[in-house]
């Protein structure tokens, strides 16, 4: 067995996770560390101590490399994924002027709007340097000045990036200039942007390996589950739909990230999902069995637990829709599962009409994949096999990209990702279900006032 391994790190909201894989994509070592708590205040700000990123990354790399060295594995590359939209602003000495503004900071709806709020609160005039989470960590690991570290087009996308020029949009540059902010240079995912410093490499007991430009956590989660070609549904608290396209597609509630050299990762996120049946969480095992036995529900629902939806319906006023009151808990649960599956189908249909390509199999990650009845309902209504995958997590996707970046020819990450094995736990094959198909038509009628 080859002793070469490739490291992926994901910086989430509450923790840092790292994994090392071999050339087949098999995980060989893992480590994780918590991050500082996100602080939310009355001004709608959501912030985090960025120093905790550095402390946690140092710890996970120390633990991970210790495991690797003991087994005789040799790291070859490193790639970092993070939540898109989280950033820090630094002064002319590259010290943060405030805690990191999180992706869901409510002071504005976009990163530069939040940056303006941070500057106003700091009562400083600049100049300032803007840095996404990965740049901060790469500067630390390479011991290079922060302005020398570029961002990737995926983490920079919410700022406004033109994929063709690998640069910011004119409006983005003008707004940044008006705020006296310097933005990091933009490079494509897979670009070598730094090397772990000799000092840090010696401390970890590894070679001074290259660090490659990554992608956001949503993209790396998709890559972990479906590689460079798979359509992926993440069924966690909410439902996230991701597909692959050959062109840059966007629309209400969905947009694309470039996967060099010729693919785009396209998707959107709904507010329904596991949260829709949260009140039945203690009874899921029993309800899943009973829901499979009763067949199609006798009512239709869009099981929205809040007011407002992002995708596939974009509406600030839509709320939980029900065609009738369910006669029992089992019937309500069954109807909620169908509502999730119908929304998934409607979302995929929208993305197909926009120009996306669906894979023959729909790959599934998240806790919702544990429900066999939901998986079978989804397969039936999608008329496609539904596969529950074994390779999940943004850290795994980052590791896949780390491997592909290191061995690629030119800038073609897609070709290398297609060689990685995506392990599957179980596959649900579609079955004809006329009652379910009839319910889907009623579902389209139910949501029609909002589409």
Give a written overview of the molecule.
- It is a single chain.
- By secondary structure, this protein is of the alpha/beta class.
- It folds into two domains: 4-214, ATPase, nucleotide binding domain (Nucleotidyltransferase, domain 5), CATH 3.30.420; 226-450, ATPase, nucleotide binding domain (Nucleotidyltransferase, domain 5, 2-Layer Sandwich), CATH 3.30.420.
- The protein has twelve helices and 25 strands.
- The strands form seven sheets. A seven-stranded mixed beta sheet has the order 19-20-18-17-23-24-25, sandwiched between helices. Strands 3-2-1-6-16-15 form a six-stranded mixed beta sheet. It has a three-stranded antiparallel beta sheet with strand order 4-5-8.
- Helix 8 (329-353) packs across helix 9 (372-382) and helix 8 (329-353) packs across helix 12 (434-447).
- The longest helix has 25 residues, at 329-353.
- The N and C termini lie far apart (54 Å).
- The mean pLDDT is 94.
- One of its GO terms (biological process) is carbohydrate metabolic process.
């Amino acid at each position: 067995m080859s002793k070469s391994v490739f490291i992926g790190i994901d910086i989430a909201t509450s923790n840092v996770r790292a994994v090392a894989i071999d050339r087949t994509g098999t995980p060989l070592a893992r480590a994780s560390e918590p991050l500082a708590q996100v602080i939310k205040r009355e001004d709608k700000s959501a912030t985090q101590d960025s120093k905790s990123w550095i402390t946690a990354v140092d710890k996970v790399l120390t633990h991970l490399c210790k495991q690797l060295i003991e087994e005789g594995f040799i790291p070859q590359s490193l790639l970092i994924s993070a939540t898109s939209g989280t950033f820090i602003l630094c002064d002319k000495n590259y010290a943060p002027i405030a805690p990191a503004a999180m992706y869901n900071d409510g002071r504005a709806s976009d990163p530069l709007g939040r940056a303006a709020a941070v500057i106003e609160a700091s009562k400083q005039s600049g100049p300032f340097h803007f840095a996404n989470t990965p740049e901060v960590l790469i500067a630390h690991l390479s011991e290079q000045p922060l302005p020398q570290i570029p961002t990737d087009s995926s983490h920079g996308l919410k700022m406004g990036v033109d994929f063709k020029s690998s640069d910011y949009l004119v409006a983005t540059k003008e707004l940044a200039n008006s705020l006296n902010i310097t933005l990091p240079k933009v490079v494509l995912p897979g670009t070598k942007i730094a090397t772990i410093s000799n000092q840090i490499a010696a401390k970890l007991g590894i070679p001074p390996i290259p660090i490659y430009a990554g992608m956001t956590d949503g993209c790396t989660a998709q890559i972990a589950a479906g590689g460079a070609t798979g359509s992926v549904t993440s069924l966690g608290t909410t439902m996230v739909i991701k597909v692959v396209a050959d062109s840059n597609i966007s629309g209400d509630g969905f947009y694309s990230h470039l996967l060099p050299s010729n693919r785009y990762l396209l998707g959107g996120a709904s507010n329904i999902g596991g949260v829709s049946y949260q009140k039945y969480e203690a009874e899921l095992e029993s309800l899943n069995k009973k829901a499979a036995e009763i067949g199609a529900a006798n009512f239709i629902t869009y099981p929205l637990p809040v007011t407002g939806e992002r995708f596939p319906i974009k509406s600030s006023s839509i709320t939980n829709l029900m065609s009738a009151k369910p006669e029992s808990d089992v019937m309500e649960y069954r109807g909620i599962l169908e509502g999730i599956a119908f929304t998934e189908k409607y979302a995929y249909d929208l993305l197909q009409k926009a120009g996306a390509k669906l894979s023959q199999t729909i790959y599934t990650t998240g806790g919702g994949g544990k429900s066999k009845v939901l998986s079978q309902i989804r397969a039936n209504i999608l008329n496609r096999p539904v596969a529950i995958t074994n390779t999940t997590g943004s850290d795994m996707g980052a590791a896949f990209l780390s491997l592909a970046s290191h061995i690629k020819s030119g800038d073609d990450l897609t070709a290398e990702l297609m060689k990685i094995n995506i392990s599957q736990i179980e596959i649900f094959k579609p079955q004809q279900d006329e009652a379910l198909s009839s319910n889907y038509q009623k579902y389209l009628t139910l949501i029609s006032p909002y589409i």
